[in-house]
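= Paired protein data =
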Amino acid sequence: MSAPAAEPPNAKTGDFYGWTMVPFIWLLYGAGSSPGFYSWSFFSSELIDDLDFSRANIGFVFGLMSLCLTSSTALSGLVEAKWGARTVCIVGNLLAAFGFGMLATANSLIECSIYYGICVGTAIGFGTIVPCQTMATHWFDRYRGRVVAFVLTAGGVVGCLVTWYNTIMINHWSWRTGFLTYAALALILAGVARMFIRNTPREIGQYKDGIPPEDQPRKGMGKPAVTPAPKIGKAVFAVFVLCALGFQLPWSLVVAHGRLHLEDLGFGLGAISVLFGSMTMLSVAGRLCGGLGDFMKPNLVLGVALLIEASGLFLFLFASYSIVAWIAIILLAIGFGGSYMSLSLVVSNYVGAERFSRTIGLIYLLAGFANAPAPGIAGWMADTIGGYAIPFMSVSLATMVAGFFALRLKDLKAK
């Protein structure tokens, strides 16, 4: 168990420390997930040239990263429940620093699989995805949806910066230099978590939203939230897993093979960089739209977002012209951002704050097992039969099905 942290300065003045933590959670989420998730595949052409990789190799390593990311979320939930999100963030970023540093020296598929696929993937899932959302869940109730939506915007904003930075690395240095600098960044993030993160309001004598229970508003706030049932049905849980898979699959395929697909269609590095930077930034709008779950049924937001994302993937297959590519990118970004955010809010409303981290971790784990082989299979198809038509169209259909199921969910909070 970690040593007690110094008391935050405003804990003594009575200021709600949750709002002080929000920008640091935002930083930890964005800088802790985006470099690892977006850089490998953006360097795909250089990795193919330098290490003699195939598209199947690129997809396999990315899929392994995705599997370790989602698998480690379940472990993260268990560890966080015992030692707190702060410790989990620190350990996760230290592991990321090791993985990135060693990846900069890698020369084989096995090394890349270990250092990027296993180490970096585990670091993102264990130290970023679940704990950063759990912090918002533990510190906020009335503002939970909006805070989680804001935190998740970091993935889009920092992802855009990562795309721009990786383009500079390709043009002036190398992919190895890029990964080495990401190792240094992970060490900085571990320090940020150590200094500024607190697990729960109770640690410093505060309450959720900064409001004591006796001062919680009782009038003019509409009906109080329904107390979540102790358990959720198997059918509802299966829909949660399907929705997680539905938003993960299109994004994973586009991130893993998007640059190669656009190069096949005649796009240059400059145009691809602008498209992918815009895609990650535009996903911010989708994540903010997910905050609408505070005002309307979150499952409705989730279902519509999944249908939008599925449409974007379908169009991306035929993005021979810039206008089509831009429409596809916009739809993918809005759909992914909205569904990613909305699923967290829907699950939180069903299971409550105390069970959220373990439940969402298990959902990501199960969805991850199905998602992990997809980039490798798509790469193998591109190597053997040419093109991405079959994987892109199949995943688009599966995401549409998930969207229709999400629309049929009954939400406990929005009435």
Observations:
- Residues 109-139 form the longest helix (31 residues).
- The radius of gyration is 21 Å.
- Residues 16-210+230-407 form a domain with the Growth Hormone; Chain: A; fold (CATH 1.20.1250.20).
